[in-house]
Amino acid sequence: MSAANRQELAAGYASGVPVKELAERFGVHRATVNRVAAQAGLQARRVPLSEQRQTDAARLYSEGLTLREVAAKLGTGKDAVRSAVVAHGGAIRSRGSYFRKR
Question: What is the largest CA-CA distance in the chain?
Answer without folding.
Answer: 51
